[in-house]
Design brief:
Number of strands: 7
Strand order of the largest sheet: 4-5-6-7
Largest sheet: 4 strands, antiparallel
Strand content: 15-25%
Distance between the termini: 111 Å
Radius of gyration: 39 Å
């Protein structure tokens, strides 16, 4: 029996020690790192999905009555938008006012002419647009400028008519007119 043990010891001493290739170790490290990243990403997606579902289910209960938008009941420093457009009051129908009104929340044409609603207090202002058509006008998003289509007949012939877009600065009433003409100088009538 000692012969077998001695022979096995001799064989074990003579055998080469295994040494794995360094590239094999690098590949194993990369695979382990990629596995950890994939597991972390999958966990994050699940957490975000569950959190999103919970927030969607709680969203209606988080909105209180203080979040509801409503028209201003008095002067509003950031602007007032009327809850409805009433018939233009009689005192507004009779007179025309300066174009220097300040910020405006609504502009529309009516039987009373062009009517602007002040953004600060909701008051109505009837204005006369120089050579303007009441139907084609647009208010800037900040309520500071009003653009409208103008037509000024300069003579008896249609070729002498000027037309274009006028822009009113409502803070000072100043009007800038931009004529619309073709390359040959003919007037272009703006419809909308």
């Amino acid at each position: 029996m000692t012969n077998i043990r001695e022979e096995l010891d001799r064989l074990a001493g003579a055998a080469r020690t295994p040494s794995p290739d360094p590239a094999l170790w690098d590949r194993g490290r990369r695979l382990r790192r990629n596995d950890r990243l994939a597991t972390s990403a999958a966990t994050l997606v699940v957490v975000l999905f569950v959190g999103g579902l919970i927030s969607l289910s709680l969203a209606p209960s988080l909105v209180g009555s203080s979040q509801v938008a409503a028209p201003a009941s008095g002067p509003a420093p950031d602007g007032a938008i009327p809850s409805r457009i009433d018939e233009v009051p009689q005192h507004v129908r009779s007179g025309t006012e300066s174009l220097a009104i300040g910020r405006v929340s609504v502009a529309f044409g009516s039987t009373a002419g062009t009517v602007l609603v002040s953004a600060t207090d909701g008051s109505y202002h009837r204005v006369t647009l120089p050579d303007g058509r009441n139907a084609t006008m647009r208010l800037s998003p900040d309520g500071q400028r009003l653009a409208y289509v103008y037509t000024t007949p300069s003579g008896e012939e249609p070729s002498t008519t000027t037309a274009g877009v006028a822009i009113i600065d409502l803070s000072n009433g100043k009007i800038d007119q931009v004529p619309t003409v073709t390359s040959s100088g003919a007037t272009v009538d703006v419809a909308s």
